[in-house]
Amino acid sequence: MAFKNSELNTSGDYLKKGSFVLIISVILGFVADYGFNLTLSQSLTSHEYGDYKVAYAFATISSVLILLGGDRVAPRLLSTGLANKDNTDVWEFLRFYLIIALSLSSLVIITTYILSVLHIGSTDLQEHHPLVLISFAIPLIAFGALLSRILQSAKHLALANLPWRIMLPVLKISLIILFIFLLNTIALWQVILTGVLSVIIVISFQWYKIRQLNLIELKRSPHFINSAQTLQLSIPMMLAMLVTMAVNQIDLFMLELFAKEHEVGHFAAATTTAHIIPIAQVTIVGLFLPLISPAIKQGYQSAKSLFWQGQKVIMISTSLIAITLLVAGEKLLSLFGPDYSQAIQTLWLLICGYLIWSFAAFSSTWLQYDDKGFWVVIVGIVTLILDGSLNFALIPLYGIKGAAMATTISLSLAALCICLFRYKHSKEN
After folding, report:
1. CA–CA–CA angle 242, 283, 103 (5° rounding)
2. Which is nearest to 51 in space by CA: 194, 246, 191, 200?
3. What is the pLDDT of residues 167-221, one digit of tens each?
């Protein structure tokens, strides 16, 4: 059964408006984030810049972990109600996942602090990454992710995406420049402090807009959330997202162990440059998220139509971006500094790996929304193990190129498996 005419028109209008937001979010967001990273590379040594990227990766992965998939499952739980102007369940959803996030983030902060006191590994504040300080940003990032998903579920894509894609890096750049103007220099802990302050500003803005748009009512709706059933939906989504992020970030952690210190900064510059491909992919998938569950409920033809619509947009967009990066990559790397051009081959490999995975990303999300998230998690875990093993073997031999090879091989095999699972599942239906 296909969408009704009114639903088609509504979805069509939403996608047209969303496409405009998508273009702004991807292009201006990349410029803003790149500007922030360039500011850091000019303010810190390549060693310090690499340390910051590792600390940031730790905070990002931890913020996904402590939510247990609350941000991922939000459109599935909230889209229908918000589309009908019913906000009675939003506070219950937010409250449920906030309690979980605050509890688990407390454990992360305490554990990180204990490790730092014991001077274990890179959590030693006196010698290496200030992970204890950045760990306090973890619950804030998680809270911001929930607010963004509420706005996304209500189809306010600009308010969901632009504050984090554009406002956040612009705020961080402004605060870093202010620190340098006042102090003539900036330390790594001060960079992290500017990030925390910027996150607080963005969260405050989004909360204000949610209240202004009447998307939440601070009243309990205890029957909306069945804890066990809700977590059964969200945890597989969290695991799939976490594994994908871990595959993208494990290279940095393993380079810390096996490569020279300055190479971590060079690899970080390459991943920052290539990262516009995953940004575009995630943004496009986010555009379609509120439409997936209704399409699946409408039947095979509606689901098939929406799937191929999203798949086409992703493939065309990421391919054009990849071609642009291949042409302009060396120039973009040189903006970080003359020695960063050494990472050009690493950049080329990462572009290929991210592009191939982007072709399978919508299939991965679709399987999760169609109650086949278990297979996505299995593929992700195998991919993570493979990536770690390849990093262990290739980094000592090839340095940052070895890390990029590991990522490209792992993501390519993961993309193949996901597409095969998606094809098999569609045939069964």
Report:
1. 35
2. 191
3. 999 999 999 999 888 888 888 888 999 999 999 999 999 999 999 999 999 988 8
Q: CA 147, CA 42: separation in Å to the nearest integer?
A: 33
Dihedral of the CA atoms 77, 81, 85, 91 (nearest 10)?
Answer: -50
In angstroms, the CA 101 to CA 74 distance is 15
Which amino acid, 339?
A: D
Helices 373-398 & 227-258, crossing angle to 10 degrees? 10
- CB neighbour list of residue 47: distance below 8 Å, 6 or more residues apart: 261, 262, 264, 265
The domain locations on the chain are: 5-428
Return d(Cα 409, Cα 401) in angstroms, integer. Answer: 12
Expressed in angstroms, the distance from the first to the final Cα of the chain is 13
**Which token pair is 98?**
């906030």
Cα–Cα distance, 139 to 199 (Å, whole number): 11
For 412, residues 6+ apart whose C-beta sits below 8 A from its C-beta are 353, 356, 357
Structure tokens belonging to residue 78: 């909230």
Residue 399: which region, alpha, beta or left (left: phi > 0; alpha: psi -120 to 50)? left
Whole-model pTM: value is 0.77
Specify the amino acid at residue 223.
H
Q: Among residues 409, 418, 412, 413, which one has the least CA distance to residue 374?
A: 418
Nearest alpha carbon to residue 92 among 208, 211, 209, 219: 219
User: What phi and psi, each to the nearest 5 degrees, are found at residue 185?
Assistant: -160, 170
Task: Tell me which DSSP letter residue 3 carries.
Answer: P
